[in-house]
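Thought: the user wants the 3D structure for the chain below. I'll pass the sequence to the structure tool as-is, report back what it returns, then summarize two notable features.
Action: structure_tool
Action Input:
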Amino acid sequence: MASPSRGGARSLSQEGSALVRSVRLRREHAMSAILRVGVSKAALARRRFLSSVELRPSLRLPSYPSSAQSSQESQVRPGPSYLGGSGLGSKSVMSRAVEHVHRSSSQTASLGGSSIAAAGDGPPPEPVQPLPSCVEIERQQLTAFALSPEVCNVILAARRPSTKTVYTCCWNKFVAGCTNKSVDSLSAPLSEVLLFVLSLAQQGSSLGTLKGYLSAISAFLRLPDQPSLFKSPLVSMFLKGLTHLFPPTPFIMPQWDLNLVLTYLLCTPFEPMHNCPLQLLTFKTVFLIAITSARRVSELQALSSKPPYLSVHPDKVVLRTRASFLPKVVTPFRVGQSIILLTFYASPHPSHEEERLHRLDPKRALPFYLNRNKDFLVDDQLFVGYVGAKKGKTVQKRTISRWVLLCIKICYALAILPEQLLHPQR
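Observation:
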């Protein structure tokens, strides 16, 4: 059989068997126009095809063989080279052609436009069911007491939202550890709980953190005859042993001098306040109210700038938290408690020193701060953002804490500057 000229179109002899068989060659047969592959000289050098595979409607190809037998039968039998050029035999050509056909059919099927059924395809994987939330776990446990949904909602409101968030994080981590061991988290034995806590201790968690994990696990895990993990003698001895094996490291609070900070709050760039940048004015106002009120940062974040929550008197300023705020300890005395800040060195000032110390009065700083924010104020929170997308909007508790820290750092940075930079008029 003469070898055809290089570069011309070629065809295969006939279709392969339907259903599960791929295209096969039969030796010494004339080829029909079922599969056409256009080849150039450069493509032969790269061993690549230039044109796509053409199929007749009657040709049926699976995406992959359904058995080992069909896989063996789909292999190309050795035969003479039907394409001209050295180094490119019929086995190489057909294996690449069949691979191209399989890839094209699988891509078409993934797009939903192919009617070719892939032989041997198993059932689709079942969707992963999400784990129930901690609130749903508690709700299911409360239904065992035959409580109404209204009563369950009241009981679920016993924990603060921040506590629920912490418990959820701790519980999810415990569930992940149980899943790796194929253990049901809701019925895990005490041994698994203690192993989990021990792994956290070995990773460097403090004793307070370990007790927090035990509290979260105890809220959702019910051991036989034990309403709480902390009631178990084994847990008490285990925690005592952890304190001996992993003694707590004392945390040394960074020392800072209040007098130094107050001294530099009297100078530039914090004074005069009508020329003070809004950022530094915010830092100074937050710092003065924080140290004079001695309140938690959560209470500072809940202060309002609107009456009747803010009222300014000749000798004092009265601050109140918003009505929706709940303090850490919810008691009638602490809910809605007023913060009264008396005037520091009220005018008239008999001496220059008292006039200078009056610059540390929070009642004096508040009007400057509120006047600068009134044009872009969005929320009624007292302390709002001063730049960017948060300008005039509510800020988080950690932001207020960071402002107090930055105020201290700026004052310490000013302490190392030359005296002439602090008092250029001298």
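Final Answer: Structure generated. Strands lie at 310-312, 316-319, 339-342. Residues 1-23, 31-39, 43-120 have pLDDT under 50 and may be disordered.
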